[in-house]
Amino acid sequence: MSWLEEYKKKLVSADEAAKVVKTGDWVDYGWCVGHSYDVDKAIANRASELTDVKLRGGVTMWMPAIFQIENPEAHFTWNSWHYSGVDRKINDMGCGYYAPIRYSEVPRYYRENVEPIAVAICQVAPMDEHGYFNFGPQASHQMATFDVSTIKIVEVNNNMPRCLGGTEVGIHISEVDYIVEGSNPPLPQLGSAVPSEADEKVAALIVDEIPNGACLQLGIGGMPNAVGMMIAKSDLKDLGVHTEMYVDAFVDISMAGKITGLKKNIDRGRQSFAFAAGTSKLYDYLHNNPQIMSCTVDYTNDPSVVGMIDNFMSINNAVEIDLFGQVNSESSGTKHISGTGGQLDFVMGAYRSKGGKSFVCLSSTYGKAGEPKSRIVPTMKPGSITTDSRTVVHWVVTEYGKVNLKGKSTWERAEALISIAHPDFRDELIREAEKMKIWRKSNKIV
Question: Which of 18, 164, 250, 299 registers the highest number of CB atoms within 10 A of its CB?
Answer without folding.
Answer: 250
